[in-house]
Amino acid sequence: MKDKIRFFILFALLPFQLFFSQEYKNGFSDGSIVTKKGSTPVKIFVSPDMKQVYDALGSENADVLVILNKYNTELSSQGEYEYVAQYYEEFKKKGYFILNENFMPVGEEGMSAESLKSYKYILKSNQLTKQDLRMSKMVWLNTEFSIWNPNEGIDIFGFKKLRYYGLMFVFAFGFGILIMRQIFKIDNVDDKFIDPLFTWTLLGTIFGARIGHVVFYEPSLFVTDFWSVFLPIRTKPTLEFTGFSGLASHGATIALILTTLYYSYRIIKKNPFWVYDRLGIVIALGGAFVRMGNFFNSEIIGKPASETSPFAILFPQQSMEYGAIVPRYPTQLFEAFGYVCLFILLAFLYKFTRKKYQQGWLFGLFFVILWSIRFFVEFLKEPQGDEVITFAGLNTGQILSIPFMLAGVAIMIYSKKNKIEPAE
Q: What's the whole-model pTM score?
């Protein structure tokens, strides 16, 4: 019976896998450099590994443009600098052009760790010369797909960088507090209960998401780097502050359920489903901000997409853990859009219907829709870390989402017996 179920699921998912999968030969995509001379076709390549960059430039007879990423130019030690410097010197000897963000030649006056930060491209061309680039008032790269290559954050006072990922978390909790204040005002609840809700939600989100990620996707960390599981540090190979990264929404959800139970019974003294119904509204919006943070970080990306797809985006700063750096689906944006729509729906139902008096109904709907969005977007996603749980073509994220969807349905059914009257 189990084999029949597995076969049925695989058969049902096959069209999705065939439709969404796209292969790129040797990690190259196509584009053209537009100059005063005209449009020059190039093969586009990206890799954090300088050895792969070197091999790619030598493997093609066609013109090749390498888009450099932070791993090629932002180096943290003298040893790393010396390692990449030898490759840049070799590129110059072979006549390759090192270009800045405006496609103008640089690096001719010498190289240093500081000047390396201005390097954005390497071009091997049989058709273009440095003079062609300098004589053009404007040079740009033309592709059928979009290229997402932003800074990771905002420089503060010239020496500290505020990362967009962290900023999105600030927005998530900041807007969450504002919305919950308005909700409590509508429900005639003293806003003194907002601060403890924020505290317990923050703790549940951060620690639950972190531990959930390690348990579901990277359990080896418990053995190889135990303290990094619980603290924002890395101890191997050396001690380093990393901030909290590697977060799993399933772990955050489980932790939030537990912390909200404590908050409901010991602090606000209300039915937990009353709190869950309202918390689900702000979590939906918060989830959208978190996925935008993932987008800025070029992480949790999708599978390779056709260059002609309207959704195809190249993420030059992505990690090689996801495979070749080629045009991919922006699954972070798909999820963010879905969560914004869910937020709007829940807010509308809360404000303009009586569903908020059917304790648990809004929360059950939140569970069903949110985890359905996650389930279907996972078809487009690359695996995150180790896939600890897989079954019949479904990945860990999808399998973990199914119980939450079923729980949502059960909660909606239960809510029919859990109605309250509006407060006077």
A: 0.84
